[in-house]
Each structure stands twice: as C-alpha cells, then as structure tokens.
Amino acid sequence: MQPPLHLLISEKLRAQISNGEIQPGEQLPSEHQLMSEFAVSRITVRRAIANLVNQGLVVSQRGKGVFVKKQRKITYSLSSPLIFFEEDVARQGVTSSLQNLVFKWVTAPPDVQKNLQLSPKNSAVYLQKKLLLLDDTPAAVDVTYILPHLGEAFADDLQRRMTFPTLEQNGVAIERIEATLECTHADRETSHYLNVPLGNPLLVYCYTAYTHNDKPIVWGEALSRGDCLGYSVVLTKNSR
Fold it and tell me: At what angle do helices 5-18 and 42-54 cross, to 10 degrees?
C-alpha cells in the first residue's frame, strides 16, 4: 500500500535537506509552490510540513515561512570513567529531557532473564520505556528492565529522571556497564515516538549495568535516531 501523500512529500523534502539541496537557514518552498508541485491540497502540504517540524528538521516562523534548522548531532561517550548521559550532553551545551511512556511490573522475557541472571520462577521486573529528547527533539526511545526491588523503591524518581543517575543518587552504585552497538529499523511504535518513517534505520545501544559483586541490576536498549545521536569510545593500549 502506498504511503499517504503527506509522508511522500515530507520524505522528499527531508531527502533534499539531508543531501544539502536545501541548506540550513534556507526557506522551504511556500505552501502554494508545494501545492502546485505535488498537485495536492493545502491540508496535505501543512501535514507534510508538520512532519518535518516534529522531526526537528525545520522551524515555522509566523508571517515569514518555514526554514531549515541547523542540525546538531550529539555524541555520547561510552568510555571509562563512566559518564552518564545527562552530564555528557549538558557539557555539549544541549538540553535533555524525558517523557515517561511505560512503567509497569512484567515477567521478564527469556533474554532479559538471562542478562539479569533471573530464574524462570523469580523473573518479575519493572519495564520502563521513556522518550529522550535533545533540545526538545525526539532522539531515542530507551527500554529498560529493572530489578523489582529497585523499581518499587525508586518508582517516582525513575519516571522523572534517567535511570543510572537516579540509582547512583539513591546509593546504588553502578560499577560496570557492558554494552554493544547494533542496528535495526523503526517499527510502528518507535517511528511514532521518534517522528521518523516506518523502517527508518536506527542505532541500538544495548547495555547491562552491574553493581557490587558483579550483580546485574538493569538491562536495556536505547533505539536512537542516527541523525540526532551518536556514540564515541576511546581505546587505549595498556602499558606493560
């Protein structure tokens, strides 16, 4: 089935922005120009522009038009010593915020049971999904599974703030994080939250956090827009 016309239009404009055909600071074609070019109604054009606004690609200025925003890609460092997300992006002059999407008691799926070293008979955890925004632009959907005693004890804080700083400030030390980087494509849910097309490539940061005695306490994955958020590491050779 062919996508709606407003998505086709916004994707063509998005491609023109991505390949530099329309530069940051430049104005998009007017509503009348887009209506004529694509032979569509004003409503369709406005929905297409709204898609780009929601993706953080353009800004609408009343009485002037729609202009391409300067894109700023944030890089989160995965190197030691541990630097938590909020602190790292703040150092880059970017504001971060989150929206709690889901916070509930669930039975852990088999892969989560394995990563958190849970037995099938004792596999209850808290599932949290939150939307991470950078300068008010949706950048990542973070899905975490938290041991039940931690989820219950810090439920209010976890729904307002990032997971690791919340645990640390409540006396739960994060001693080690094991992580992998993968790639996936946006499903219907993530495409909705991140304002990207269905099937859009996404980076996946998978992680397991350990506290004292090598005890895993959190497993999760952050699915992020590659145009908004990247990751960096520093590799050093151990001296002998």
Answer: 50
Q: What is the CATH number of domain 74-232?
A: 3.40.1410.10
User: What is the reported pLDDT for 47?
Assistant: 93
Q: How does pLDDT run across 54-98, given as a tens digit for each residue?
A: 777 888 888 889 999 877 778 888 877 778 888 888 888 888 999
Decide which of 3.90.79.10, 2.30.30.60, 1.10.10.10, 1.10.8.60 is the CATH code for 5-68. Answer: 1.10.10.10
Q: What is the pTM of this model?
A: 0.74
One-letter identity of residue 74: I
Q: Are 198 and 218 in contact (CB under 8 A)?
A: no
CA-to-CA distance for 15 and 196, rounded, in angstroms?
13
Burial 93-108 (b: 16+ CB within 10 A, else e): eeebebeeeebeeeeb
Among residues 59, 61, 35, 62, the alpha carbon closest in space to that of 46 is found at 35
